[in-house]
Design brief:
Distance between the termini: 54 Å
Length: about 375
């Protein structure tokens, strides 16, 4: 017997499908563009290691020699940094361009909203948005420079000195550098790429909303409902505040932040769309990682390309706090930690109280003093 849905249930299902499609589209973008930049990182690492291999194996590694080598590698890294910066910029531009199209479709409810103003930026405008918009207080080239400077200027000398002390051959030292120094660039560049791609997506969403401020009342902070969502983001989601366009916390809030603005619009009928209103849309959630067969503890997977293994999915109504209430004790403990979980379970502190209005996280000592 076919399942019959009411009009309200049908609209909720449509909204859930649209939201899921949007989320998966973002994930596909992240995977594609992150791999592109990681390929650039690998090429840069190979270039630097190749440069190292040209140094005479019989050369003495005195302090002066190490200093000279560090300076030589710094010159080589300039080209590598430029290569990676360009790749991240191109990746974010591609994602941003597609996000404008997707966000236009979402806010116009598939083109049904009359007098809707679609937004699109030129290639020059997108390039400027990516390269000149700070994320975490730094421009893109500053983030890339910082990642390289740390790995090359600090780590390389330490690894070479270690190799000297234990009597490694030059071939072994080169391998040591490739494995321990330059390999560390992958995680940093992956995080940086995802952050800038997400920033382009978020900027696109806000641009489209601001172009249609006559139908958009404001926006809410919407975090990914997962067991790996950070305290700052889940707290902002649980605050359930409606911010005016151009106001509210900075988004993305941190590296790898996957939060997205949820816009509060006029009713469908006020926008000229003849469909029943949706009282409240369902949000999808996932629990990722693996389960320890002995303790039953959920071990969260790495937030990276492809994400961790999904061990549970579902849907819920409300904020992140409503999602957390549906989870077993071991998952709640993994998300909040024992101290915050105890405070939350006692009812003395809600999730919205774990961070301030800007997303700055309170320490446990500050939370205890506040109750």
């Amino acid at each position: 017997m076919p399942l019959k849905l009411s009009t309200d249930e049908t609209q909720k299902l449509i909204q859930l499908v649209k939201q899921t499609q949007w989320n998966y589209q973002l994930s596909q973008f992240e995977d594609k563009v992150t791999k592109e930049v990681l390929n650039s990182t690998n090429r840069a690492r190979a270039e630097i290691t190749k440069k190292l291999a040209k140094v005479s194996p019989t050369a003495k590694f005195t302090k002066q020699r190490l200093t000279a080598l560090g300076e030589e590698l710094q010159h080589v890294s300039v080209a590598a940094k430029a290569q990676i910066t360009g790749s991240i910029t191109n990746a974010a531009e591609v994602a941003g361009k597609a996000s404008y199209t997707a966000q236009n479709k979402i806010l116009s409810f598939g083109g049904m909203v009359p007098n809707f103003n679609p937004v699109a930026l030129s290639a020059t405008q997108l390039h400027s948005m990516v390269t000149k918009t700070p994320v975490g207080g730094k421009l893109l080239n500053e983030w890339v420079n910082g990642a390289f400077d740390y790995n090359i200027q600090q780590s390389i000398k330490s690894e070479l000195l270690t190799g000297m002390l234990i009597g490694e051959s030059y071939k072994d030292m080169t391998k040591r550098l490739a494995d321990n120094v330059f390999n560390g660039l992958d995680n940093g560049m992956e995080a940086l790429t995802r952050t800038y791609v997400q920033s382009a997506n978020v900027n696109a969403a806000f641009d489209v909303a601001e172009a249609n401020a006559d139908i958009v009342k404001g926006w809410k902070w919407s975090s990914v409902a997962e067991n790996r969502t950070c305290i700052r983001c889940l707290s902002l989601d649980s605050q359930d505040k409606v911010y005016a366009l151009g106001k509210g916390p900075t988004m993305p809030l941190h590296a790898r932040c996957r939060c997205f603005p949820e816009f509060v619009t006029k009713t469908f009928k006020e926008m000229g769309v003849d469909v029943d209103e949706i009282e409240q849309a369902y949000h999808p959630y996932t629990v990722r990682g693996s389960v320890d067969p002995l303790t039953g503890k959920v071990i969260p997977g790495k937030i990276g390309v492809g994400g961790g293994k999904i061990i549970e999915t579902g849907r819920f109504l409300g904020t992140y706090e409503d999602f957390l209430k549906t989870q077993p004790l071991n998952v709640q403990t993994q998300i909040l930690g024992p101290g915050r979980l105890e405070l939350w379970k006692s009812g003395k502190v809600a999730l919205k109280d774990f961070a301030d209005a800007k997303g700055n996280q309170y320490l446990l000592t500050e939370l205890y003093k506040a109750i």
